[in-house]
Design a protein that fits this description.
about 325 residues, mainly alpha, two-stranded antiparallel ribbon, globular
């Protein structure tokens, strides 16, 4: 009897399927219902933004002076303006789709560049320590003491007025112009805003990565790699950074919300991407003159800003719960 029970127990243990780390993270993430709903919302917004050129019934800069401030759902000359038109007769729905493509591209690129800079700086500071750590972290702490919004306004105004201060390769402008459906000359404005946002957005991720590297620096797998003759560069980029990415992924997802709002704020204040290039921020800015007579106008560009900001925050919360190693379920 004991032998039979032991055999059944061993067979049942063999039938238990071991989950991969990715499967465990996804299972935990799916339990966060608000994060799943937010993910669905963002997938929908990304899809319609990617296919903006196919979905939009009008060109974003197509002007009809005889159809100014048309109410949502009105048909003019046999063409439906789903969300109405603006003060010079441009279709709001079409501009909203194109603006989403530009605003989301700027936010995603800003996150990628800022997190990459933060990962490199934080890894070097945490791994080498000593005077390198002191110099880099004191510089980061100094920049963090400066109010970010005034500095963003100053730097962005300088770059918008003098776009040639930072040389940008034509190949980069051509590629990003195709991604955002812009001419290369117009894509320069978007690239400059990415530089401004990423130039001040890497500070927190650098501190976060430094803390993670400090906890990993004395781990046994690092000592094993060093004993096998691995160089410092290989240890940092192959062994340490991949093991420290979990909090960086959460930070990046939460930072997306901040970059969406920051880009919209710069454009709203007139220091970002300029009209007639559509972004959610400058579309919102253009409505402030007419919002008292037509109070629905700010809702058209304001709603996607609100939805994206809220959705990215919930997705970040879900990823934080899913990637927390202290959770066992």
């Amino acid at each position: 009897m004991a032998t039979k029970a032991a055999t059944v127990s061993s067979e049942s243990m063999r039938t238990v399927k071991e989950e991969t780390p990715f499967a465990i993270v996804m299972r935990r993430f799916r339990k966060h219902h608000l994060a799943m709903v937010s993910l669905g919302v963002m997938i929908f917004i990304f899809v319609i933004s990617v296919f903006a050129q196919q979905i939009a019934p009008f060109e974003p800069d197509e002007v009809d002076v005889n159809a100014r401030f048309v109410a949502p759902g009105t048909t003019v000359d046999g063409k439906l303006h789903l969300l109405g038109t603006d003060n010079i007769g441009r279709d709001y729905f079409s501009r909203l789709l194109y603006a989403g493509r530009i605003s989301l591209t700027v936010a995603v690129l800003s996150v990628l560049v800022s997190e990459l800079i933060g990962i490199i700086v934080g890894s070097i500071a945490g791994f080498y320590g000593g005077w390198i750590d002191s110099v880099l972290m004191r510089f980061v702490e100094f920049l963090l003491t400066i109010p970010s919004l005034p500095l963003l306004l100053i730097v962005s105004s300088m770059l918008i007025r003098n776009p040639d201060l930072i040389p940008i390769p034509d190949a980069v402008l051509n590629v990003l112009g195709k991604v955002m459906l812009l001419r290369p000359s117009d894509a320069r404005q978007a690239v400059l805003i990415v530089i401004v946002l990423a130039g001040l957005g890497w500070l927190t991720s650098a501190q976060l990565m430094r803390g993670m590297i400090l906890t990993l620096r004395e781990q046994t797998f690092v000592e094993a790699a060093r004993s096998l003759g691995a160089s410092n560069t290989r240890i940092i980029f192959v062994h340490m950074i991949p093991n420290a990415l979990a909090p960086i992924i959460v930070d990046a997802s939460l930072a997306l919300a901040g970059y969406i709002v920051a880009e919209a704020s710069l454009s709203f204040l007139g220091f970002g991407i300029q009209d007639p290039i559509p972004t959610w921020g400058n579309m919102l800015s253009a409505t402030q003159t007419y919002m008292y007579d037509r109070p629905w106008l700010p809702l058209i560009p304001g709603l996607p800003i609100f939805l994206c900001s809220l959705a990215f925050n919930y997705i970040g919360d879900g990823l934080r719960d899913a990637l927390d190693p202290r959770l066992k379920q």
